[in-house]
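TL;DR need structure tokens for one chain.
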Amino acid sequence: MSQLDQAMASLRGHEGVEHVLILGRDGLLIQHSGSAALDAETVSAMVPGIASAAGGLAAAAGHGDPSTVVVRFGDGVAVVDVLSPELLLAVLLRDGVGFAPLLRDLSSGRERLASLV
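>> reply
TL;DR here they are.
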């Protein structure tokens, strides 16, 4: 198992995490960890729009670039993390699960994860 696979498995080990996707800013899927039930390529294509919208909001509000965006759905949560100018991470979670430990791990491990891609 590669170091990237190990890092993704560690993220999947957080309670409620169903999918972990690493993708380019262009929306092309680089790696996915999770069940086959997800259309990972379609999800990956949508993620850059979320990151872009968050960047526009941050600019309009006079804040720095966003590093993490959380989107709550009717029955789940998506966390989009900017790993680098070229890479994004998306984590999809079940609803009703606390994800503060996941956010802490993403914040502290962002650069390391980006270096493994």
